[in-house]
């Protein structure tokens, strides 16, 4: 049986307010493979124990609602946990904050996007030439769209990282780092999140580029293809098997490493 550890990247006070990055992953991963054994750790509550990774086949770093960037002093507990995981060589996935965290831990740079926040769907994402050949991106083609909500972005790739995809808002939308014993795949967007999850994250505020509050569309887009198109996606962008494609590819990678 495959065992996955999810690193909850929110603080305990955010968790008490219902802000969890782990919950969408629990739902998405169980939807992809109900037989998975999944556990959760929260480094902002306590450091990872020495035996926390015993029997674990792959590790997920979730998104986060904290106000600080991954290079901030406040993020030190999370950086320490990722460095600890990287030392084991296990396959690691990171969404949004998880991608930015890996960039910092591996020597890259992050910062607030000059284009403002990207909320709703990350649109018109295009795989790079390297991305078209990478197993993480199997099934993705030019112009794909995935749920997203972020202010910060990767602004300097670590040496040795491979850029897999980007769009007009954030040039680094997906990255892999497979060197020096580190096995990391990550995305700036959230294949684990539904449109309804994004609606909850925005709090119904008009935070979108054109000033329009798209929350009503986000609330129904998971089951209404017309609303998905209104958000700028394709009709099937939020179908679970399409939306979670990178996670399914990563799980296949974890299982291949088990074998």
Summarize the structure.
This protein has helices at residues 12-16, 22-32, 76-86, 97-105, 129-133, 195-202, 215-220, 225-230, 240-243, 245-258, and strands at 3-7, 37-41, 58-61, 91-95, 109-112, 118-127, 144-150, 152-156, 161-166, 174-179, 182-187. The protein is of the alpha/beta class.
Any overview of this molecule?
By secondary structure, this protein is α/β, with parallel strands linked by helices. It is 31% helix and 24% strand. It has 10 helices and 11 strands. It has helices at residues 12-16, 22-32, 76-86, 97-105, 129-133, 195-202, 215-220, 225-230, 240-243, 245-258, and strands at 3-7, 37-41, 58-61, 91-95, 109-112, 118-127, 144-150, 152-156, 161-166, 174-179, 182-187. A 9-stranded mixed β-sheet has the order 2-1-3-4-11-10-9-6-7, sandwiched between helices. It has a two-stranded antiparallel sheet with strand order 5-8. Strand 10 and strand 11 form a beta hairpin. Helix 3 (76-86) packs across helix 4. The protein is globular, with a radius of gyration of 17 Å. The model is unreliable at 204-209 (pLDDT under 50).
